[in-house]
Design a protein that fits this description.
With about 475 residues, the chain is of the alpha/beta class. Helices cover about 35% and strands about 20% of the residues. The model has no long low-confidence stretch (mean pLDDT about 95). Bound molecules: flavin-adenine dinucleotide.
Amino acid sequence: KRKATIIGAGIAGIATAIRLAVKGYDVVVFEANAYPGGKLSEIYGNGYRFDAGPSLFTMPQYVDELFTLAGKPSPFKYQKLNVVCKYFYTDGTRLTAYADEDKFVSEVAAVTSESPERIKRYFKNSRNIYNITNHVFLQRSLHRLNTFFRWDTLRSVLRFAGIDAFRTMHHANQSFFTDERLIQFFDRYATYNGSNPYQAPATLNVIPHLEQHFGAYFPDGGMYSITTSLVNLAQSVGVKFNFNSAVDEIVLTDGLKAKVVKVKGELIKADVVVSNMDVWFTYNKLLKPYPQLWPQKVLKQERSSSALIFYWGIKKTFPQLDLHNVFFADDYKAEFDCIWQQQSIYRDPTVYINISSKLKADDAPTGCENWFVMINVPANNNQDWDLLIAQARKNILDKLAQNLGEDIGALIEYESVLDPRSIQLKTSSYKGSIYGTSSNNQFAAFLRHSNKSSKVGGLYFCGGSVHPGGGIPLALLSAKIVGNWVA
Ligand code: FAD
């Protein structure tokens, strides 16, 4: 039986392991941490449970697909959200993003000055971008010739102008809407892959379609159950997991083939090696002796933004809040300038609060809520994080007091913090970026690392730092591309 070694049990590593096991490989996963999931993990404290990283679950079909592929019934259950998110603006405007498009359009038309026709036209444009890009940019490798000899690729190339790659998201949103609140609403989607709407190409305006058309979901067992369900599935098809087992080196044969990895001094042989480790560290740590093989241009790409998260156990319930809540910055442009140009944290940041206990009551003690409070921050460039975090905490509490009329600080009975430094430490993500490289220019999609090395035989890559990009759905698609590519 052919053997495959997977480096890392992030969600893409687990999904790749399932795909290769189903293909007949003997699969062994080495994970540096004591637990699986990487960014998709959970933490506990004081009677509270928190999903540590991702909180918004979209495109659940890519999880279901793995159970179908393995021919196993899926115990992984989730519900579709009727309210995707509640938005709070500094001028007092409140906007509820309903999943139902007509309901959402009526809500926006009632709250803002935009006409329903314009909003519908926007979603049509978003759907159009999806139809052109999906097969070429998401479902397949951009580094295989056979992708380009397909009829659907050719059709996409002919419709290329429709993907709106030559102006920024913000610019495009301004051409659709006049109400600043709606422009801010749609600009925010750039942050779904850690980018800046004032720089990222308008192609990213595809994201509202993904959320609106395919929906937002919540797994019954919380986000971490995506990880646990897939680990169980992997084990049921024979995948073996080794935790607390960091791979230290990919040892190349003379013919530049990746046939051996070194773990705790032991040499482990395989026919195929798949790295789910951030591609930057895969080269800089695991392939350190071979700088001549490093794809320098790809590794120099700008990193996505990172995140600062406060996990707060709150001893009160807030009926005006939902599962997902966003408190917008007063000046969005100033916030993004601060993150991307000044590499700092804006004084009035956009605050995202996720409260999983709204739908999963046992995540918090009775009468309490588990608040995952996140703001976007720059990747780690050795800023004075302790100082920035202390200032941000105060600014966030001031903002929430203004919006909710309550001293939230006094209600916090549990607290822990995740910042760019700890994200890098916990998941080996270069600079603590949460979505790999940014999409701040129109070439970003082409400059993400391929899912297979062009120089090292038998070496494949999956996960949020390589093609097609960050976020759970794309990380799962990277696993699909690797699964299809491995012979
Ligand atoms: P990672 O999660 O990066 O895991 C890589 C694994 O490899 C880790 O477990 C690491 O320990 C292991 N590893 C690294 N080096 C080695 C080595 N040498 N040997 C062995 N093991 C190694 N996505 C969404 O879809 N929705 C969201 O709402 C969302 N929000 C997010 C919020 C935060 C705070 C963060 C951090 C991320 C968020 N994301 C979200 C992004 C999403 O979490 C990631 O894109 C996805 O989980 C990345 O998965 P991955 O497979 O690339 O692996």
